[in-house]
Amino acid sequence: MSENIVIAGGGVIGLSVAWRAAAAGHRVRLVDPEPGRGASWVAGGMLAPVTEAWPGEEDTLDLGQESLRRWPGFAEDLAADGGDPGLSLAGTVVVAHDSADAEQLRVLGEYLVALGRSAESLTGRELGRLVPGLSVRSGLSVPGDLAVDNRKLLTALLAAARKRGVEFVPREVTGIRPGAVVAGAELRCDAVVIAAGARSGRLHPALAGLVRPLKGEILRLKPARGCLPPPDRTVRAVVEGRPIYLVPRADGEIVLGATQYEAGFDEAVTAKGVRELLEGAERVFPAIAEYELTEIAAGLRAASVDTLPVLGELEPGVLAATGHHRNGLLLAPVTADAVLAMLGGAPLPPHVGPTAPARAHSMIPEGA
Amino acid sequence: MSENIVIAGGGVIGLSVAWRAAAAGHRVRLVDPEPGRGASWVAGGMLAPVTEAWPGEEDTLDLGQESLRRWPGFAEDLAADGGDPGLSLAGTVVVAHDSADAEQLRVLGEYLVALGRSAESLTGRELGRLVPGLSVRSGLSVPGDLAVDNRKLLTALLAAARKRGVEFVPREVTGIRPGAVVAGAELRCDAVVIAAGARSGRLHPALAGLVRPLKGEILRLKPARGCLPPPDRTVRAVVEGRPIYLVPRADGEIVLGATQYEAGFDEAVTAKGVRELLEGAERVFPAIAEYELTEIAAGLRAASVDTLPVLGELEPGVLAATGHHRNGLLLAPVTADAVLAMLGGAPLPPHVGPTAPARAHSMIPEGA
């Protein structure tokens, strides 16, 4: 049955839901003062459920793996409707610079092998041959963890949504209730989808405390003439306890991320964040010292209490698709499919079960 | 006698000469595709002949001191014609972080005292009381070294030049000869002034090899809420052999500079340059770590062979006012006055003598 849907938020989640819902025949309006920007615009673009995994977060890993399986089809459909999103199949290496980092990586490697995931341990020398310019002690190669060009993806989603008839309302959402979204005027509808990222917690009482901003700073760099070219695949590392990643883009640029701070809604790029990212990157890939620094930026991820997103009905006619933490780009396909199922009244597949909004309320720390 | 003058270059030197020459009654055209930008826009704004001094560079110190004496009058005239240039009288401290830096500073201090300059040695504790937040071993207070807000200065110079009737020609200069400047069309005139900064060496054979680009990277930062406020005066330091400076602006911003590279006409901001500036600044003023990094930029100084500018006649009707090295803002008043004297056929004052173009040819390294 065709419904009249309003989506609050035009990041990668809101746009993916809008595109898929419009393609399925629903009437869709998407409300965002600047669709295609926000945290999605500042993302690194890793589609990396395995190398993001950590013991105790198996639900996140399962959901991520399920979404990653859907990514090639999602990218193919998107290429047909809106343009190539720049999916890279080159894989990921996770590297350790010193013995403490190597120990942390050993724990991750053993955990992944125990789960039956594809992860190959490599020496520093082997890694240097695989990815010229890496200066590391040891590492893991995880060929299944991929990457996407976040800005190409957003551009393609905007075009695909427009092609499928999504109406864009360039306003700030100030209120939500069953059957209506307030954004300057009141937009009446059958169903609201809250996909407002870090700001979702302000839009519905059931999300307050569940979703909070988690600042991340990223840099963009490109090799100067005569420099060693960027790595051909994603490189992740933990340097002095801080995670960093280098994600190459097809045009030769590198996205270097990402810091994590609890800083409220502050989106300032800090001196220390930039210094730490550059130091960490030079440590594992020294040639980056001579690269041109072309952009510094910060975004607010929608952190959730347990790293799982919040997907489901908050009350009749109000759905949440938010709290994707560091995994918004990865989880876009599985999220869009889940929202479509909910709109159609279909049962949710089992991998989405742990994301139900109700599970999270018991997890909010007292006083939050 | 009123002359018809064309000035090639609209940085701080070209604009100062244009304003002063037009105010003196000359017809002035200034040719620059983007006047008020270039290296002057990226400068730190120090007016610091004393703390820039080094044994063996006495001519540079004398010229700088002479120009600094003219700065208050220059700023007052400019405020009347074009607006307040943001001259700060707060002074400068030069600080040492470790024992090697302290030794270098001791040499500078003894040299300054021997020259009879005002420079007071201070302990780290004394400096911490004078400038809260400084974390240093020792230092020198040099109250006579000042600073100007380079962007306010450029804005004021543009307005003052317009008010005095300077005609702006927004084109690139491609050729110069006695009696004419080629910039798309040919601009005929009585005298040409070459004030094209790092690009001056390309505009006249007598400047080739004398003036070369010297890249400098600078950052701009501002305190986040709750941060310690910036120092109230210019702070200079040498950290691990690399000079850095922090120059506060009246609006709370800090300009952090400056790297120095021989990199041809490349204006890319490098990863290493930014990392070193941030590291150095955190070392002497740790609170800056939490500041917001609002801008990264690079400019090309017009380096000369001996740090002195090139001021004088290259051939009849062609004057040079370029090669100001790290001192373009400081030397703008004395340069404008010298060019005015030359245009009027007046004898040059003695402090300008060492800047004669002829002196420099013997100093060009063989093969350059």
From TrEMBL, chains A, B:
Gene3D superfamilies named in the record: D-Amino Acid Oxidase, subunit A, domain 2 (3.30.9.10), FAD/NAD(P)-binding domain (3.50.50.60)
Metabolic or biological pathway, per its Swiss-Prot or TrEMBL entry: Cofactor biosynthesis; thiamine diphosphate biosynthesis
Record-annotated membrane-spanning stretches: none
Reactions catalysed: glycine + O2 + H2O = glyoxylate + H2O2 + NH4(+)
Keywords of the record: Oxidoreductase, Thiamine biosynthesis
Ranges for domain FAD dependent oxidoreductase: 5-339
Top-tier EC class: oxidoreductase
Documented EC number(s): 1.4.3.19
Keyword Oxidoreductase: yes
Pfam families: DAO
Record carries keyword Oxidoreductase: yes
Record protein name field: glycine oxidase
UniProt organism field: Amycolatopsis minnesotensis
